[in-house]
Amino acid sequence: MSLISDLHWRYATKKMNGTKVPQEKVDSILDAIQLAASSFGLQPYTILVIEDQATKEKLVAASYGQPQIAASSHLLVFCAWKEVTQESIDTFIADIAAKRGVPLESLAEYKAYISGSVSHLSKEQQAIWNAKQAYIALGTGLAAAAEAKVDATPMEGFLPAQYDEILGLSAQGLTATVIMPLGYRDESDWLSNLPKVRRDKDLLFKFI
Could you give the count of Cα atoms lying within 13 Å of 151 in the half-sphere of its Cβ? Predict the structure, then answer.
């Protein structure tokens, strides 16, 4: 099926049936997320892939009791870095050099450009920028899940501070930004058979 057909099929699933998503489908979704666009290619976020049921259960209350958390097959928690450190930039540049087979010194100008671009941002601005990058990865994951015919729900309805505490994120320099349960829609989900409603194209797009 085409991407457009896949996107017509997907919706923000409100009730999942607890069925396990095959590992090969999970892997394909994670592969797509890994390849998501990111400024500089830096990917200033870490994604937790939670399959452990006990951990998911702990997060239900911190998600306002929403049932997708416990009934999901896998819960993806997109965690933005609290800041981009020089060490993380150094590691990124070293990875480029190794994977592209180029001398580290040849990337000095690019490294300085990234460092300069990030250093003028406050920690608060960095956190916002990092979170925006995580949302790009989220969008790619949603499209990949739709292609695999796996239901996925983008969710901001949770308490980040509680997620950070339960998952021990602060000590890792991370904060929960957005979550995406993966699973399969339950037949009783009231939203599953309703027509998709989006703004008409003539309202959404302005051609100049």
Answer: 24
Amino acid at 93: I
In this predicted structure, what is the pLDDT of residue 193?
A: 87
The mean pLDDT value of the chain amounts to 96
Q: Which CATH superfamily is domain 3-204 in?
A: NADH Oxidase (3.40.109.10)
Q: Which of 73, 28, 68, 29 is nearest to 153 (CA)?
A: 68
> What long-range pairs does 202-206 form, CB within 8 A, spacing at least 24?
none
At 1, the pLDDT band (50, 70, 90 cuts) reads low
Q: In what order do the strands lie in the sheet with 174-183?
A: 45-50, 74-81, 174-183, 151-152
Q: Which of 146-155, 168-177, 186-195 has the lowest mean pLDDT?
A: 186-195
Q: Where are the domains of the chain?
A: 3-204
Residue 177, token pair as written in the block: 């930004």
